[in-house]
Amino acid sequence: MLKKMVVTVMPLQYVKIPYQLLKYKGFDNKGADMTKYVYVAILKHRQGDNNKVTVNMTVLEKITGITRTNITLHINRLIEHNFIDRSHQVYGWDEFGINTYTLNCPEEKFSMIPYAIAYDMEIDKKDVIAYANIKRIMDLRRTDKKVFATKEELTEAFQCSENNVDKIKRRLKEIGLINFERKSKAIELTWELDNFSEVKRIKYNRKQHVEKTVKSKNGKEVKANENANIV
Amino acid sequence: MRMQILFNDTKNLMTTTLKELATDCGPDYTEFEVLQVLNEMRQRNQIQLIMIKQSRLKAI
Q1: Per residue in A76-118, pLDDT tens?
Q2: Which of A50, A53, A113, A190 has the least C-beta neighbours within 10 A?
């Protein structure tokens, strides 16, 4: 089971995965999801909307969990299909391996995936991409936290066989990301629904506490002639 | 910044700072959080906020 996110007052942080990348079918079927995930891994170190991302190979290794050689292969594939550009930055022997990537992928439309899901080491990288695809379908249908999708649509979106669609859905359900019933087209994004409302509840409680404290001052510290000092 | 809060229901006036209010709320509350709530209260017409300029502070 996926560990429940440590709830803080900070809102959930999201990574934006472009639709263009998610629905792209040009990569080889073998490892296409991993190639897409390497792009997501690069996005983690993006600052704001800056198109240039500087990231170390070792960091990418940690995020993706695959070897340096494989990452280079996937990055080369991304460059080949014009999703990113790469430029080396070699200042000294200790900084070897730091690259600057320029993101070329159009980003008008994107899926928003919480960091806690996108960069969790326990979740299979294929499942992250599948989850992003579910969110893409959800966004296109303009529904909130619930989506109705047939098996054919999911096969098309995941770019895999019908049997694999069932496997992926079952895996996502086991981890606790989604929920669905047999013979039903509805998929519910349970994890986000739970955590989103939890964060909202905590924020609301804190606001109430501050308001209470301010109101408790009412009538306590009244001073005469203070109006004279008002600017 | 030093400020005065006027409670609309009782017409009471109090002088305070964001820092003081944040400390009163608890150790992990920030000044920004307090300011947000104050703004919301102002929009709901519960209070009025009056900021005091630094130059005037010397005179007080």
Answers
A1: 899 999 999 888 765 655 545 678 889 988 888 898 888 888 8
A2: A50
Task: Using alpha carbons, select from B26, B33, B22 the residue that is nearest to residue A10.
Answer: B33
Residues in A lying within 8 Å of B, measured between beta carbons: 206-207, 209-211, 213-214, 217-223, 226-227, 229-231
Do residues A130 and A168 lie in contact, with contact meaning Cβ atoms separated by under 8 Å?
yes
Dist CA A103 CA A52 (whole Å): 6
Kindly provide the ipTM of the predicted complex, given to two decimals.
0.85
Type of residue at B55: S
Could you tell me which residues of chain B have a Cβ less than 8 Å from any Cβ in chain A? Answer: 4-5, 7, 9-10, 12-16, 21, 24-26, 29, 33-34, 36-38, 40-41, 47, 50-53, 56, 59-60
d(CA A212, CA A145): 33
Tokens of A113: 């995936």
Please indicate, yes or no, whether the overall pTM of this predicted structure exceeds 0.90. Answer: no
